[in-house]
Amino acid sequence: MLVAGLAALLLAQGGSAQSQRAGGPAAPASRIEELRQSYRRPAEIPYPAANPFTPEKALLGRILFFDPRLSGSNLLSCASCHNPSFGWGDGQALAHGHGMLQLGRRTPSVLNAAWGASFFWDGRADTLEQQALGPIAAAGEMNQPLDRLPAKLAAIPGYRPLFEAAFPGRGIALDGIAAAIATFERAVVSGRSPFDRWVEGDDAAIPDAAKRGLMVFNDRAHCARCHKGWNFTDDSFHDIGLPGEDRGREGFLEGFEALRHAFKTPGLRDIARRAPYMHDGSLPTLEAVTEHYEHRRLQRPSLSNEMKPFSLTADERADLVAFLQTLTSPPQDFAAPALPR
């Protein structure tokens, strides 16, 4: 079963030794153990009490996620923008919606969304259930009036038994559509990466450059101030000094000027598969990302307090990128489901 297979990828972590560049001092064993503990993978996927997991609900959510009939044009599905082959994004700098309209932000990945505290780049949805309906209804995205969606799905005979199995006696309703999609999205979990194997004790799982890069990530470059924990995100919002007029979180929370140009910290799992980067897709490579943080961020009143100045050598930059690349797991084969008729 899909959900069971994805859930099985959540493994506990062990430990390993850390090496530094030849001739340099090794990190203390206590520091390595501290880092291992901070990046320990959770044992299970969290499901809210208001929407507990059932296999019938997950199956329905998977089908809905891939069905273009959830859009007003019958051409766009959730998976059109959240494609498994692109790290559950779309591989484009900026998203495209209804009528191929170019949107102002990049499609965020739904990978590891089960651990998210809020959703969208500006955090305007508090739950995955709220997030699931947002793009469906948005005129510039899937352009499907929500008040018409239950009847539209009810007119497809194959959906009736699926909803009955997932929500007995409740029929086809918006809250069920949202709950099923959210249940499926919570099962979209990153696989076991080389970094995970290293943390579990396989010292040969990542190269020495990546081990050095881990220390740069946590110390010299201050990346772990925001990209923390097993999913490498603080689930908060920061202005990281990118140019542009997008007000970010402050556009949603009017009057909070400290949140102007602040966007949600993305997790870094499977990051090598998710280029280009940032909310506006403006940075094409991981090397460009490190260059931005070191040299190119704009100085302005709303710049995050976590954006501390630093300077790396060419070797340290290369080591940092080598570490980031170890956070990507092997590709997972993911077949689109047969859709009901």
Produce a short descriptive summary.
Helix content is 34%, strand content 1%. The protein has helices at 2-7, 29-38, 55-66, 78-81, 128-137, 149-154, 159-166, 174-186, 194-199, 208-220, 249-252, 286-296, 314-325; strands spanning 237-238, 263-264.
How would you describe what is shown here?
This protein is an all-alpha fold and 341 residues long. The protein folds into two domains: 23-41 and 192-325, Cytochrome c-like domain (Cytochrome Bc1 Complex, Chain D, domain 2, Orthogonal Bundle), CATH 1.10.760; 55-186, Cytochrome c-like domain (Cytochrome Bc1 Complex, Chain D, domain 2, Orthogonal Bundle), CATH 1.10.760.10. Helix content is 34%, strand content 1%. It has helices spanning 2-7, 29-38, 55-66, 78-81, 128-137, 149-154, 159-166, 174-186, 194-199, 208-220, 249-252, 286-296, 314-325, and strands at residues 237-238, 263-264. It has a two-stranded antiparallel ribbon. One of its GO terms (molecular function) is peroxidase activity. Its main location: periplasm. It is found in: Periplasm.
Highlighted features:
341 residues, Cytochrome Bc1 Complex, Chain D, domain 2, 13 helices, globular, disordered N terminus, peroxidase activity, Cyt_c-like_dom
CATH superfamily (homologous) name of the largest domain:
Cytochrome c-like domain
**How is the largest sheet built, in terms of strand order?**
1-2
Find the structural class using helix and strand composition. mainly alpha
**Number of helical segments with 4 or more residues:** 13
pLDDT below 50 for ≥5 consecutive residues: which ranges? 1-20
CATH class of the largest domain: Mainly Alpha
Q: Total domains, how many?
A: 2
CATH topology of the largest domain: Cytochrome Bc1 Complex, Chain D, domain 2
The geometry reads as globular
Compute the separation of the termini in Å: 22 Å
Mean pLDDT: 91
- How much helical structure, as a percent, in the residues? 25-40%
Encode the helix/strand succession as letters: HHHHHHHHHHEHEHH
Percent of residues in β-strands: under 5%
Rg for CA atoms: 21 Å
